[in-house]
Design goal:
The chain is an alpha+beta fold. It has 22 helices and 21 strands. Strand 14 and strand 15 form a beta hairpin.
Length: 752
């Protein structure tokens, strides 16, 4: 019989094991290439988008940039472009907010047209509109749209629809996810402005570091603020999303691949050990050691190669497509395409090469034996007496425990592989369920512990004060003010949220333990995550101003609160006015369901709607949790299945001996089950802290806006334990039935 025919016969006989090897290789590469394909797709697509539109490196804000100021900046910037960015409302139902960009040259952060004419900086009659707003409002090219701002109106023809690189993410005032029917943006020529135009934003490109550019900027002109690309709201939010996906790609697939290597090693060890006599026959009839080794290397090489190729092809095709539909509901880009990186091929090649090396290790030693020794069954591993066997405790242990102790010491490698395999699978389960728990806890913290209102009413900028007070009394509500602010401290700066609220039972403040916290009158409270990031404590001073205002104030931190979703400052209206700023309500929160229409109310958000927004914005994270859970369970089944085969093969002679000595089948099954449970328990216990560490890495990559307290719930541990031990015991019981059909003659062959 030729070696090729022998290999095909062996594959047919051991098809289950070879399918397991194939699946392990496939799952490892599928997960790695799929998750990283999704991440690289986000990176490559956004980078191409930024390059194509010449995304700004920074934004300088001031009340007006005259020609002299621009000339000074041009001395150290490679490119500049002025804009007037004005908040307006569209003359439509509910008065949606539209941010207008009156552009001077349209050379930086260019509007990306998908329908209609290219943007024309000399066209004073047209407007280029956010395509997602247009879709929600049933607007098309050729329609007219009216904008209201600064007490006046302008009506323009929609000349084009498209995207802007500055608005991959848009924030809605009353929701975590953007409501594209209520917010949008538009680009117009500077000639379309009805009067003299004051440019308040200078877009810049430069070849310096951000800090060097800002230093040169400080030395050249007076300005209100500077925002670098990484801190721009849209860029920062999308970068946070990509960072979390990358972290998942860094951790989980690597665990899959490591477990695959270990499983391949144990599987090939079992096959080679089981075929000792066949190897001896091949050696006896003249086959060289090199030929035999290459023959068995092909056993691991072929299924791993096929699995790696299939995973390499299908991973980037399937997994990214699972995430992009949910992400496109929150983020806006012209296209969503999976990415590719040469690391995919390198990892797949590494797995194939490793399969060759692993298989070589399993048959190297046996190939060195002479044919006579190889024809004999493998002798049992020798084991010296351990300290516990020499102690008095040994005699008090049951036969079951003593036998399993000695078997584990004789077969340390098998025991170690079982523990490591279980540990890896448990770590993935703990991390996946932990992320699910964290997201659920953040949701209940924000919408149960903090928010006690039923409706949140967004006030119109042209609200009638009398009507507002009527609504306030009618709904038993309370005014609050929410504004974006730019904060500076310890040479750091960021755009965060300001909440100004009266003492109301509709909004609670909490500490790190989610316990209620009272913010004293006169105190400015900063969120714990923001304090950590800026290295601030109680008593430190910060400088801040409301975005759009040039009035900076200095405040002393009086308290630190914990906020899971929105990081920033909290104070009372009186405290705000003590800072020299006016309390200007932006919302009414009320315990009543509110559905009436008033001119002063721009939009209404219910607490149920806010919870749905949370579910939507966390959909991609939860999808990752589901993928990891399913693959972890599949890995657990494959790992434990292969290890049980190896165990049964290595212990065949010992089990046969015990049967001859009169041990009943049920007693022998109990021996195997005990060992399985012990190894699984050790792997499970070791996998818990590893899983908690993985979970912490994942959540730390969730971005600067989310704040969580790492917790490991008993529910997480219990669910992981149920899955792990159910799989372990089920696989063990499946194989322990083979004790009844054990070939006693084959198992008890002389090993002298």
């Amino acid at each position: 019989m030729s070696l090729t025919r022998k290999m095909l016969r062996d594959i047919k006989i051991n098809k289950t094991q070879f399918i397991a090897i194939f699946l392990m290789a496939f799952l490892g590469i599928f997960a790695y290439c799929g998750i990283y394909g999704e991440y690289y797709g986000l990176v490559q697509t956004s980078d191409e988008y930024y390059d194509l539109t010449n995304m700004a490196d920074g934004w300088v804000h001031n009340t007006d940039f005259n020609t002299s100021a621009v000339d000074k900046v041009n001395e150290f910037a490679t490119q500049t472009d002025r804009q007037a960015v004005i908040q307006s409302t569209a003359d439509m139902e509910n008065k949606p907010d539209i941010k207008l960009h009156f552009v001077e040259k349209a050379t930086i952060s260019k509007f990306y047209v998908i329908e209609g004419k290219d943007f024309n900086v000399d066209d004073d009659s047209g407007v280029w509109l956010d395509c997602r707003f247009a879709e929600k409002r049933n607007l098309k090219v050729g329609d007219n749209i009216t904008f209201e701002f600064d007490g006046g109106k302008i009506t323009k023809e929609i000349k084009g629809l498209g995207y802007s690189p500055e608005y991959i993410y848009e924030s809605s005032p009353n929701s975590l996810t953007p409501d594209f029917s209520e917010i949008g943006f538009a680009y117009l020529s500077h000639k379309a402005y009805p009067t003299n135009l004051d440019y308040d934003t200078l877009l810049v490109k430069y070849n310096y570091s951000d800090s060097d550019f800002k230093e040169k900027l400080d030395d050249s002109i007076d300005y209100l603020s500077f925002t670098k690309k990484e801190d721009q709201l849209s860029v920062a939010k999308f970068s946070d999303e990509m960072a979390q996906h990358k972290m998942i790609g860094d951790v989980f697939p690597i665990v899959f691949i490591i477990v695959t290597f270990l499983t391949l090693l144990t599987t090939m060890t079992r096959i080679v050990t089981h075929q000792r006599s066949q190897i001896g026959i091949l050696k006896a009839v003249g086959y060289k050691d090199k030929t035999i080794i290459l023959h068995y290397i092909s056993y691991g090489f072929v299924p791993v190669l096929l699995g790696a190729i299939l995973g390499l092809i299908t991973g980037p095709m399937i997994i990214p497509r699972m995430f992009y539909p949910t992400m496109s509901a929150t983020y806006s880009m012209p296209s969503w395409n999976p990415g590719f990186d040469m690391s995919f091929i390198y990892i797949a090649a590494l797995m194939v090469v490793s399969s060759i090396f692993v298989t070589y290790l399993t048959c190297r030693q046996i190939s060195k034996e002479n044919p006579a020794n190889t024809l004999r069954p493998k002798p049992p591993n020798a084991s010296s007496r351990s300290l516990i066997e020499k102690s008095g405790l040994w005699n008090h242990l049951s036969f079951n425990l003593r036998w399993n102790w000695r078997d584990a010491r004789r077969n340390k490698f098998r025991a170690l592989m079982t523990i490591i395999g279980v540990m890896g699978c448990v770590a993935l389960l703990i991390a996946a369920f932990g992320m699910n728990d964290c997201m659920g806890q953040l949701k209940t913290w924000e919408y149960d512990d903090i928010s006690h209102f039923e409706s949140k009413l967004l006030l119109s900028s042209e609200a009638n004060p009398m009507e507002l007070y009527y609504i306030l009394n009618y709904t038993n509500g309370s005014f609050i003010m929410q504004q974006s602010i730019e904060m500076k401290a310890n040479d750091m700066e960021d755009t965060v949220m300001l909440l100004v609220s009266n003492n109301t039972d509709l909004i609670s403040y909490t500490d790190n333990n989610r316990d209620s916290l009272e913010i004293d009158e006169g105190d400015v409270s900063i969120s714990a995550k923001l304090a950590d990031r800026f290295n601030l404590t109680i008593g430190d001073n910060i400088r801040w101003h409301i975005v759009g205002s040039d009035e900076w104030v200095t405040s002393k931190i009086g308290q630190i609160h914990a906020e899971p979703v929105s990081q920033g400052l909290i104070m009372s209206p009186d405290t705000l006015e003590d800072q020299g700023l006016n309390f200007t309500p932006t919302n009414i929160v009320t315990p009543e369901k509110f559905g009436e229409k008033y001119d002063s109310i721009k939009s209404v958000s219910s607490i149920d709607g806010l919870k749905k927004s949370w579910d939507q914005i966390t959909t991609s994270v939860m999808m990752m949790v589901y993928v990891v859970t399913v693959v972890a369970v599949a890995l657990a089944i494959l790992v434990l299945y292969n290890l049980e085969i190896l165990s049964f093969t290595e212990m065949g002679r010992e089990i046969a001996t015990l049967k001859v000595l009169g041990f009943k089948t049920n007693v022998l099954r109990k021996l195997l089950l005990t060992q399985n449970i012990i190894f699984t328990a050790i792997g499970f216990i070791l996998g818990i802290p590893l899983g908690f560490y993985f979970m912490t890495l994942m959540m730390n990559a969730a971005g600067d806006s989310l704040y969580y307290i790492p917790t490991l719930t008993w529910g997480n541990i219990l669910l992981s334990a149920i899955i792990t031990f159910t799989i372990s015991i089920g696989v063990n019981l499946l194989f322990s039935d083979r004790i009844r059909s054990l070939d006693m003659v084959e198992a008890l062959k002389d090993v002298d």
